[in-house]
Amino acid sequence: MQVRFWLRVALGHLGAVGTALAAHPKIPFAAVTTGPSNLIATGLFRDTDELYHYLDHRIGILPGVQSIETTPILREVKRLTYPAAAR
Prior knowledge:
The chain is of the alpha+beta class.
């Protein structure tokens, strides 16, 4: 299952939390942004049990994480990709 994480992270912790997420193989995408959620990430999990364990034992313990919204991706309707030559 593919999941989007919308995190609110205390300033001063964005770099550390982003680096921790990016280092984990379950997270193919992580980015700092602005707004109510200031860090977003995509995670790939086998099932809801694996997702729960990740939330409770990986994200939930990171210093500075104030809140997490989790959005399961039910169906992708479009994914834009670029040919290697266009990059």
